[in-house]
Amino acid sequence: MASADWTSWRPLRLAEDVPAGTLAEQLDGGQAFRWSRDADGAWIGVFNRTLAALRPGPEGLEWRGRSGATGTESALRHYLDADGAQARLSESLPWRSDEVLRSARAAYPGLRILRQDPHEALIGFLCSSNKRILQIRVMVAALAAKLGEPLGGGFHALPSWQAVAAADEAVLRACSLGYRAAYLRGTAKKLLARPRWADEFAALETPALLDELQALPGVGPKVAACVALFGFGRLESFPVDTWVVQALAKAYGLHGWKPAQLEQFGKAHFGEAAGLAQQYLFSAARQGELRPAAITLPSRPAHPKSRR
DNA sequence: GTCCAGGATTCAG
DNA sequence: CTGAATCATGGA
Questions:
Q1: Helix, strand, coil percentages in chain A from 3-state DSSP, rounded to 5
Q2: What is the pLDDT of residues A131-173, one digit of tens each?
Q3: Which chain C positions come under 7 Å from a protein C-beta?
């Protein structure tokens, strides 16, 4: 097994502590698909062209990077929202009056939205439709290994759109993508002509950003919401997947509501950091830690105005 | 074998 | 516009 040449472990001071369980949920809970545990239980991951390792230590989070690499710590600090912007947003959520959110938030203290690169978020969630998180990780890992630039030590960056567009059909099929292979190829061909797409998209207001994303093959409302949230830092974005549908039905009594209606509810109820609230609920629901609560909520579905 | 997965697309009505 | 069928793959 190839290995990388690591620096020594060093403390990573964040604005708020991240317990081991929260760290695991954050790195391997369906936001990013590029982290895995090594034999010692430390997390190893690649984001952009940074290879890094993280582990909970006795006095807080610890990190190490490739020896000789520069910028790993600052990259990690950005990735993990070290300055605490989301800590303030989390505090502003209505957890005081909403006991469902309060218990979900307490189950994962310090849980944050990872500040991923748009390219990484788009590739990950293009693979995500109708797939379990573990399988998405396998698909993305295969894409990186077969088509991504080697970073040494057996690690790879994610493939460029050029690499995806030029890839053999057989190579893509070997990544277990299924029908998602066409999504990746189609999106790759469209974005190939727009090398600055991430910057152009980042300059848009969120509604326009969602429209641009949904114009890409394989990107519907849910994937667009995820890419906006995880890749473009739009914390107000509220992705509604099967887990969130179940969570909102069970905990808030919103049975029979359609995804678009639940999205409207989430944005209205949770506000500017709805996406962060969504992640608390998603994580709690997936771990079976979500319990229904008797809180006062509307009994009638909202009528989302159709965009476009 | 059946069911489901951080859904999207296409088509019928 | 809404709802249903279909899509490819692997694990429970």
A1: 50, 10, 40
A2: 999 999 999 999 999 999 999 999 999 999 999 999 999 999 9
A3: 1-3, 7-11
List chain B nucleotides near protein: any atom < 7 Å from a Cβ. 4-9
A10-83 CATH choice from 3.40.350.10, 1.10.520.20, 3.40.50.300, 3.30.310.260: 3.30.310.260
Whether this model's pTM surpasses 0.90 = yes
**Residues A26/A32/A38/A40 CA torsion (nearest 10 deg):** -10
Class of domain A118-232 as given by CATH: mainly alpha
pLDDT tens-place string over residues A1-45:
556 699 999 999 999 999 999 999 999 999 999 999 999 999 999
Catalytic status, residue A258: no
Six-digit token pair at A11? 């403390």
The closest nt to A180, taking CA to C1', is C8
The residue type of A39 is: A
Nucleotide nearest to A173 (CA to C1'): C8
Catalytic position from the list A189, A190, A222, A305: A222
| Cα gap A207→A103, rounded to integer Å | 31
CA of A263 to C1' of C2 (A): 18
- Nearest-CA neighbor of A125 among A223, A269, A41, A210? A223
> Per CA to C1' distance, which residue is closest to C2?
A258
Is residue A160's beta carbon less than 7 angstroms from any atom in nucleic acid strand C? no
